[in-house]
Amino acid sequence: EVQLVQSGAEVKKPGESLKISCKGSGYSFTSYWIGWVRQMPGKGLEWMGIIYPGDSDTRYSPSFQGQVTISADKSISTAYLQWSSLKASDTAMYYCARRDYGGKWLDYWGQGTLVTVSS
Amino acid sequence: EIVLTQSPGTLSLSPGERATLSCRASQSVSSNYLAWYQQNPGQAPRLLIYGASGRATGIPDRFSGSGSGTDFTLTISRLEPEDFAVYYCQQYGSSLFTFGPGTKVEIK
Fold first, then answer.
1. Which of B47, B95, B98, B103 to mutate to test the interface with A (most CBs of A within 10 A)?
2. b/e string for A19-35 if b means 16 or more Cβ within 10 A?
3. I need a labelling partner for A11 at 20 to 30 A (CA). Which of A45, A91, B24, B58 fits?
4. Are the C-beta atoms of B36 and B75 separated by less than 8 Å?
5. pLDDT digit string (tens) for B34-90?
6. Which residues, listed in sequence order, are joined to residue A25 by a DSSP beta bridge?
7. The pLDDT of residue B27 is above 90
8. Spatial distance between the Cα atoms of A114 and B48, rounded to a whole number of angstroms
9. What distance in Å separates the CA atoms of residue A55 and residue B44, rounded to the nearest whole number?
10. Three-state DSSP class for B18?
11. Under an 8 A CB cutoff, do A103 and B51 touch?
């Protein structure tokens, strides 16, 4: 069974750094792209970027380029999303999702990680 | 960058009724690159339709997708209680994914 399990909720202060994770299982982790999607409170879905764990090829949405870093450790089948300096506006739910093999859609999703940034 | 517009913003219907949701793109989208997702409150999105008309694994046949070019439609033939949710279309182009703003299907 394909599963993406994300790390737990985080509460941080502005200016702090953060790295959240997404662990894949039940499939060949290195063969599928993993994307990250933001959902701000009460709002829609925003695609942030995507990584291919096999060679760490990474693409970013222009809206998020330079704001976050996406990485992966294929030895432990885990993808990451990190911030070097959080802002209050980073408060949101963050989802990881697997891109279908050869397709252009996201077929399996993690349960989400809620990030709250507040002083 | 292709922009997706969904209409209506909110659809108020009763269980058993038919729902028709629209997704319009600012430029032509390959049908293979258009998908629909359902998101229930407090849950992660779920893939419903891929390639404009293919049903994802486990999705009931009351859900169907159609369309091409710039106009795509998600149809729910008879609404069940669990179908009252928010629906997003998504397209892929130039290595980028884009989501529409969503349509909320609410109980009338």
1. B47
2. ebbbbbeebebeebbbb
3. A45
4. no
5. 999 999 999 999 999 999 999 999 999 999 999 999 999 999 999 999 999 999 999
6. A3
7. yes
8. 24
9. 27
10. coil
11. yes
Bridge pairing between strands B96-99 and A106-109: unpaired
Q: Which residues pair with A95 in a beta bridge?
A: A37
Q: How many CB pairs under 8 A join A and B?
A: 65
Q: CB neighbours of A106 closer than 8 A, spacing ≥ 6?
A: A35, A37, A97, A98, A99, A100, B35, B37, B45, B47, B90, B97
Contacts of A37 in chain B (CB under 8 A): 45, 99
Interface touch A106/B51, C-beta < 8 Å: no
Tell if the CB–CB gap between A107 and B1 is shorter than 8 Å: no
Q: Please give the C-alpha separations between residue B33 and each of A81, A104, B46, B62, B93, in angstroms, as whole numbers.
A: 25, 5, 17, 22, 8
Contact call for residues A31 and A12 (beta carbons, < 8 A) = no
Q: Are A107 and B56 an interchain contact pair (Cβ–Cβ within 8 Å)? A: yes
Distance from CA of A91 to the nearest CA of B (A): 16
Cross-chain Cβ contact A45/B88 below 8 Å? yes
Which residue in A45, A50, A110 is closest to B99 by CB distance? A45
Q: A110 and B102 in contact by Cβ < 8 A?
A: no
